[in-house]
Amino acid sequence: MKTIRIALAGNPNVGKSTIFNALTGSRQHVGNWPGVTVEKKSGYARIGDHEIEIVDLPGTYSLTAYSVDEVVARDYIIEEKPDVVVHVVDATNFERNLYLTTQLMELGVPLVMALNMSDMAEKSGTVINRSSIKKYFEIPVVRTIGSKGEGLNELLRCAINESETSPHHEHAIGYGDAIESSISGIGTAISSDPALAARYPPRWLAIRLLEGDGNAKEKLRGSSAEHKVLSLLEQCDPDQVEAEMADRRYEVIAALLPQVCTTCVKEMSSSDIIDQVITNRYLGIPIFLALMWGAFQLTFAVATPFMTAIDELFAYCAAALAGSGAEPAWLMSLLGDGIIGGLGSVIIFLPNIFILLFLLSLLEDSGYLARAAFVMDRLMYAIGLPGKSFIPMLIGFGCNVPAIMATRTIEDKNDRLITILINPFMSCGARLPVFVLLAGAFFPANAGNVVFVLYVIGIVVAIASAWLFRKTILPGKPAPFLMEMPPYRLPTFFTSVRHMWDRGYMYIRKAGGIILAGALIVWFLATFPYGVEYGSAESYAGMLGHLLQPLVAPLGFDWKIAVALLFGFIAKEIVVGSLGALYGTGEDEGTLSAALLADPSFGAVTAFALMVFVLLYMPCVAAIAVIKKETGSWKWTIFSVGYGIAVAYILALVIVHAAPVLTGGI
Amino acid sequence: MTSTLKTTFAAVFGILYWLSGLTMILSALVPALAEPAGQFMIPADPAAGFVLCVVGTVFLFAYRRLTAGTAGGQAYLYVAMGLSLIFGIVALLSMLAVGADLILFGDGEPWDPAQVLIPMVWLALLPAIGLYAWGREFVGNITGT
Question: A435 CA to chain B: closest CA distance, Å?
Fold first, then answer.
């Protein structure tokens, strides 16, 4: 029995996993690589006297390692040296797939091309000449339909045959005299270290280094050739070289394509037609802003009757409890103020969250979110972030919890970390009640404008922070935007509802639990020592407020605000309720506004400073838990909280001291 | 004939959307304009006005390309009609939600169904028909039918 290893490589969504499952059946298992979280799958198949280990690698568009996925896929091919690499190609998108083909050819690995989804390509009129591919690319090609299992046995036989054929040579693409000279010089330097040259093909490694591949530089570390290679690299501009090399590869593809694919130039599809408009350089961003306006409009407007219904339900429960006259009083307070009040403060916002998640699912399922990221890429790149970061920032306007989770789509570690760290500055829906209360009370004529300014301040602080992080603690360049534009699809209602529920249920389960627990803590602090007035200065909450007051006194905040801000650590929704309790007005907005206006220590400047502080000072407990989970680091979690508080404090301090000067003491 | 109709359609709706959008923005900026605009059911809403201007711009892009005979004119028209329909639905649902809230939970405050007839809603009616008439093949390509 002979054993060989086959790696399935290719662009994302070309049917690798379908082929893998069809080949391995139920014998597959999922394995993790040490130090990385990205999965590769391996399974076994048997054909004749060959036992074949098949490894399904993460999808990648190129072998230049930008993302964790790409590093995993590439390193497996290079370090583990499988006997054969099966390049799974989407026949319906043949041209795009050829970029990776050229890179695999450069690597000089034994290669077989699986022309997958051939039936769909043929149906659309695409004719790919397999014998021409074999002739020009010197790669065996097998027609496969993974979903039907067609061509898979032939694929395995072909792979076995290729593994037993030797030698395999690199298929060099000419990059022009200047770059070829650099490749030659660096390749010679690499060859001076026999161990390095034996491990990595010198020409391939030289090309990766010239393209500015950081992962390739790590492979060079400790080599006797390192110094010489680095000195040669200093003479080149990696961005320019990378662009020129990509151009050359595309030129080669463009030249070969008509020889191997006679009808690959397709008529424009509806998706292409829509993209002409949606990604138009002048219309792209305005259309995006308009669609976002539509999403937020629906989120808040359609949620209104549901929120009122929930509010009425909880008010009815609280009234029924209060009217029951049951004892003991502390238990009634726990049920009424603690559980019903606490649960109500969470559930009342569920309509907003579910509607926003539903609309974002619609946008995502339709294929639009990928275009939004593309449209915003130029702007995001200028602040040091990739276009993909924009999607989580957008979701942050609804709730920071799913927004931070949405950063999983960002491949680069630093890009993702920066996006997580700035996300809490995007004003989530939970902060809106605070803004509505204070702006309505202190800026009645311009309440809407004040709230708009607060959203803008959040965005500006997020952008400035991203720039600062990029320049200091998380240096580097954002990964170039490379995202497959999925075809537009009319999303089905039930699919989007399912996606909404998947995400929304997570919010209920995790955030709901945390916020409810926080509300119970508030109740405890406001109720005890037993017998004191609920939320009074004599309660633990009051004592805590007086303890904290010196910290916030420079901002013009009194002990009540200190306590409300402390409770806002749990969830921003609690800030208004806390103020209501501490001012003895309950949660009635009108009465609370009047009490705030009557408070001599509470002026318009203090109100605005407080709104800015609430906007920036820190995410809620649920968001902190998600930051910890997603970063996997207490260090970054604590940094996020500390940085937010510092920024909020500084800005509030500036407002409190600068506003009287700017307004002449008004 | 169809081409002329499409070109005229794009021009008329481009202008209508722009006029309505500008009126909504100016009504918000100049309070004196709010009352006369309100008589035409055009609310003072700068954000919604901006959205109408965006849709109007896509219609005008379609008009320019259809007139010049350059590629993509129909694409702009289809997308403009699609956007028109989307925002029409958004506005209609929003207004109905406000109505539902008032009817179900309001303190006797009346709700007039005519309030639904804001420009974003009524301007979407003809583009919806246009999308149905001209864009069936185009939409079918997206839905996979």
Answer: 19
